[in-house]
Amino acid sequence: MALQKVTIKDILEKKKKGEKIVTITSYDYSFAKIVDQSNIDLILVGDSLSMVMLGYKNTLSVTMDEMLHHTKAVSRGVSNALIVGDMPFLSYKIDQTDAVKNAGRFIQEGGAEAVKVEGGTEICPTIKAMINADIQVMGHIGLTPQAIYKFGGFLVQGKTTEAAKKLILDAQNLEQSGVFSIVLESIPWQLAKIITSTVNVPTIGIGAGKYCDGQILVIHDMLGIFTDFKPKFLKYFGNIGESIRLALNDYKEEVLNGLYPDQEHSYEFPQQELNEINEWVENVDLREEARRLI
Length: 294
Fold this sequence. Notes:
This protein is α/β, with parallel strands linked by helices. It is 44% helix and 12% strand.
């Protein structure tokens, strides 16, 4: 029996009830369908697909069209989870009108129910404009990967008193702007605990400790498929990458040694008709017969 579609109201209620929110990324139909069958609360079509799906060195290269392409695929495989589209670099920080239009495309074309944007207080006016256009928004502070050149890499944020205070105040302003949740990425767990206790919207941690209201991981990371680097917070919940490699090696060996396909995995032609075909092949000029079809 299909579950009822998770809504933003459901996500907000989970914080009030003290229930943990389970979220994960997905980027295509097949993975999204498996995730949805696992009753995950929220699926983020993250701009991390830039790296794990498209092979770019960071998240800055993925485009709106590429993000929409993958969001559409995910939405086709999901019946239960809330789908959030991740707004890519340059799609929302240049012009507010374009930002609202781009966010709307995730809803109208992509099939998402909300969008995610990176940034603190400085992005609040744009968030308000999106919400005024009936577009629901998830915030994201701490390590914001679209700003890695400013940070100098994928580094832990909020490690000084001033930086910590800024993040706490950013979270307050994001809540006041109307976001329904805030991703906290790569910050000390004590700081994440303070933020979680001082805002009324759920916090979703990734490298922010256990006191957040929910957690998110990149699905290709936690399954051991994308292994180019491993941040401290990442735990492998599976080794699917190795399983895939073993399966491909087995496939290669069986093909090379003539073991696959065997009779069990082959289609049969009726013997009487096969005899007729063989006799026909032996007694006609196949090239001449083929030319007659042109």
